[in-house]
Design goal:
By secondary structure, this protein is α/β, with parallel strands linked by helices. It has 3 domains: 359 residues, Catalase HpII,  Chain A, domain 1 (Beta Barrel); 81 residues, Catalase, four-helical domain (Hemocyanin, N-terminal domain, Up-down Bundle), CATH 1.20.1370; 142 residues, Class I glutamine amidotransferase (GATase) domain (Rossmann fold, 3-Layer(aba) Sandwich), CATH 3.40.50.880. It has 18 helices and 18 strands. Strands 1, 2, 3, 4, 5, 6, 7, 8, 9 and 10 form a 10-stranded antiparallel sheet that branches. Strands 15-12-11-16-17-18 form a 6-stranded parallel sheet, with helices on both faces. It has a two-stranded antiparallel ribbon with strand order 13-14. A hairpin with a 5-residue loop joins strand 6 and strand 7. Helix 4 packs across helix 12, helix 5 runs parallel beside helix 10 and helix 11 packs across helix 13. The chain is globular and about 90 Å long. It binds CIS-heme D hydroxychlorin gamma-spirolactone. CIS-heme D hydroxychlorin gamma-spirolactone binds next to strand 2, strand 3, strand 4 and helix 9. The site of CIS-heme D hydroxychlorin gamma-spirolactone has 25 residues, from strand 2, strand 3, strand 4 and helix 9. GO terms for molecular function: catalase activity; heme binding; metal ion binding.
């Protein structure tokens, strides 16, 4: 079944439809199509007798069950997918001969898979981690896979180190702990011995590692790619995805609690948003650099540990992606989708980035084990919508039936078909390469700290506080003191103040100062500089009890829904509450089944009896205190403000940031407007929250 609010189907939707299996109203059969008599009782010699080997249905059913699992991805095992489309704003033909970037009227089908990196398939969504952002464009010239992350840099400069990096990152091999966490010895041992990782590590310690939603995080192609136009001219290009809902994060304490309260938090949010018609949207942008200009940056464009600051090369918006359909089946689509960095279409090419080159092998190779053989491109989700013809054949699970024709080239038996397209086919950029065969890193890759310093300098005060706290948390879990010490020795190269602040929290010697901070910054890196956005998809908890003032609930619910936010009424028990005016308000959830960490904002409406009941309920009081601690918008109407007092929340100055109040004479539009603007502000990190017991 497709989602209710799907736009007109794309060519990929139509292709997938032909594989859809609908069991409704059908008779059960075996895999061979033989009607099944009974699937609950095996065939036995007498009702209490032994089961008979003859029972082919039993054997087939158990055999199929025994083999349901395939190996999970070696990294990015936990992920969630969605269908949609991409549309370019205007023709980019002057830059690239990629046809899907030439025609603004073309909607190119896409399938996107968002993921975490470290954890197993069943791990929690909200761990501190990089998020994968992989997009398969089903273009008329074949599949283009843009396999990126939500951070623009990577930990290592050469793909040959990837197995070492991942071994160090994953649970330690003796006891398989910790799950989905970088806070352990081997990760910090490795990164502190590989200082090239320092820039990516500081991103990982920032709130970017805790996205509120997959629809509220940026994406990056990370590498420098090439656009190649019809004249064969190449331009270096960096790809950026910008979320229309803005870039927003959780806070660390909240993220850890969400991992227990709803391990599917990001997955659920993606699914629910699409089902509700709140389609996640991203703008694709490019940074374009003439090859002749490549040397002007003071770092190497082939080095994935570097970004090009947006202030130096602006991101040019080129198109829009809308995710508007949930998959029909998780395994068939999200699990079996095979992204391969090698999948590029004419007009898009590679560079000599040594990470990119290693990836070109790895993604093709890994699918052989994961999907059980070389024919994974025939699995429906992986099939191009462009026609596919060649002499590759056979192997496990080969679908097509090549009908009485030559299986080699050249041939005269099938009129020479299929014929290569010549220059109309994919033409690799004829880069001139020359050099001795050596295992060496170029000098231009040698600076490991200055962009980490720029990232640090670009952060607001609260972002800096979160980063220090993250280093302290992670290193506080590292057992070996010499590893902690080695990390702060690197941090002092980034910023001495940062190193000292971290050292103070983890019981190691503060390192000596080594040189001055260069003071360069890139304001575009700070989430504090990203303007407030719409409140679409934000979840708002409204705490109610019998005696609540309906007039302070209903208009708010209506206003929030009108802006595509998701208000929910929470009470001590499911069902309904009776408002002060005798009306009945349906309850969406029993408060004990939820937690403040699952919401973006909390409101306590007016109503004396209701407020008294709520203030006597420790769960409700904690709910408010915790939301406050996590810097969330809070609204108190009339008697509802009793909860503020009961939760011992501070008042005055920055303590009031993000707290909206109204007198108890019903809800004016002033309160509603102010509250909606506050939700759009997302979090109020300047509040003094250290003393809040939550
Ligand atoms: Fe990778 C999966 C992103 C470096 C080897 N990677 C994978 C996925 C994403 C990335 C988003 C999940 C795709 C999906 O949803 O199925 N990887 C990156 C980025 C990198 C990067 C942005 C650096 C710029 N990766 C990288 C290197 C290697 C790999 C250097 C190996 C040399 N990555 C893999 C893999 C995976 C993978 C083992 C696991 C499952 C898969 O490919 O299909 O091949």
């Amino acid at each position: 079944m497709s989602s209710p609010r799907q736009n007109s189907p794309t060519s990929k939707d139509e292709q997938l439809a032909s594989y859809r299996l609908d069991n409704r109203g059908k008779v059960m059969t075996t895999d061979q199509g033989i009607p099944v008599q009974d699937t609950d009782n095996s065939l036995k010699a007498g009702a209490r007798g032994p089961t008979l080997l003859e029972d082919f249905h039993l054997r087939e059913k158990i055999m199929r069950f025994d083999h349901e699992r395939i190996p999970e991805r070696v990294v990015h095992a936990r992920g969630s997918g969605a269908h949609g489309y991409f549309q370019v704003y205007e023709s980019l033909a002057e830059l690239t001969c990629a046809e899907f970037l030439a025609d603004p009227s073309v909607r190119t089908p896409v399938f996107v898979r968002f993921s975490t990196v470290q954890g197993s398939r069943g791990s929690a969504d909200t761990v501190r981690d990089v998020r994968g952002f992989a997009t398969k464009f089903y273009t008329g010239q074949g599949n283009f896979d843009l396999v990126g992350n939500n951070m623009p840099v990577f930990f290592i400069q050469d793909g040959i180190k990837f197995p070492d990096f991942v071994h160090a990152l994953k649970p330690e091999p003796y006891h398989e702990m910790p799950q989905a966490a970088s806070a352990h010895d081997s990760f910090w041992d490795f990164v502190s011995l590989a200082p090239e990782s320092m820039h990516h590590v500081i991103w990982l310690m920032s709130d970017r590692a805790l996205p509120r939603s997959f629809a509220m995080m940026q994406g990056f192609g990370v590498h420098t790619f090439r656009f190649i136009n019809a004249q064969g001219t190449s331009t270096f290009v960096k790809f950026h995805w910008k979320p229309v809902l803005g870039t927003h994060s959780l806070v660390w304490d909240e993220a850890q609690k969400v991992a227990g309260k709803d391990p599917d938090f990001n997955r659920r949010d993606l699914w629910d948003s699409i089902e509700a018609g709140n389609f996640p949207e991203f703008e694709l942008g490019v940074q374009l650099i003439d090859e002749a200009d490549a040397d002007r940056f003071g770092f190497d464009l082939l080095d994935v540990t570097k970004i090009i600051p947006e202030e130096e090369v602006p991101v040019r918006p080129i198109g829009r992606m809308v995710l508007n359909r949930n998959p029909d089946n998780f395994f068939a689509e999200t699990e079996q989708v095979a992204f391969c960095v090698q999948n590029v279409v004419p007009g898009i090419g590679f560079t000599d980035d040594p990470m990119l080159q290693a990836r070109l092998f790895s993604y093709l190779d890994t699918q052989l084990t994961r999907l059980g053989g070389p024919n994974f491109a025939q699995i429906p989700i992986n099939r191009p919508v462009a026609p596919m013809h060649n002499h590759q054949q056979d192997g496990f699970h080969a679908d097509p039936i090549p009908a009485r024709q030559a299986n080699y080239h050249p041939n005269s038996i099938s009129d020479g078909s299929p014929e290569p397209a010549g220059d109309a086919g994919y033409v690799h950029y004829p880069e001139i390469v020359q050099g001795p065969k050596i295992r060496k890193r170029p000098e231009s890759f040698a600076d490991h700290y200055s962009q980490a310093t720029m990232f640090w300098n670009s952060m607001s005060d609260w972002e800096k506080r979160h980063i220090v706290a993250a280093y302290r948390f992670e290193l506080g879990k590292v057992e070996r003191k010499h590893i902690r010490q080695r990390v702060v020795e690197h941090l002092t190269q980034i910023d001495h103040g940062l190193a000292v602040a971290v050292a103070e929290g983890i019981g190691v010697q503060a390192p000596a100062k080594v040189g001055e901070n260069h003071d360069r910054r890139s304001p575009a890196l700070s989430q504090a500089n990203m303007p407030p956005d719409s409140i679409k998809g934000r979840k708002v908890a409204i705490l109610v009890a019998d005696g609540v003032d309906a007039a302070s609930v209903t208009p708010l619910v209506d206003a929030l829904r009108a802006q595509h936010a998701v208000p929910e009424l929470l009470a001590a028990a499911d069902g309904a509450v009776t408002a002060a005016d005798g009306s009945t308000l349906p309850v969406d959830r029993a408060i004990t089944t939820m937690a403040s960490v699952l919401y973006d904002a909390v409101v306590v409406p007016d109503g004396v009896t209701a407020a008294e009941a709520l203030r006597a309920d420790g769960y409700a009081v904690h709910f408010v205190a915790e939301a406050y601690k996590h810097a969330k918008p809070l609204g108190f109407v009339g008697a509802g403000a009793q909860l503020w007092t009961a939760a011992h929340l501070p008042t005055g100055g920055t303590a009031d940031a993000g707290v909206v109040t109204a007198e108890g004479d019903g809800l004016g539009s002033q309160f509603i407007d102010a509250f909606i603007t506050t939700i759009a502000g997302h979090r109020f990190n300047e509040r003094p929250v250290d003393a809040i017991a939550a």
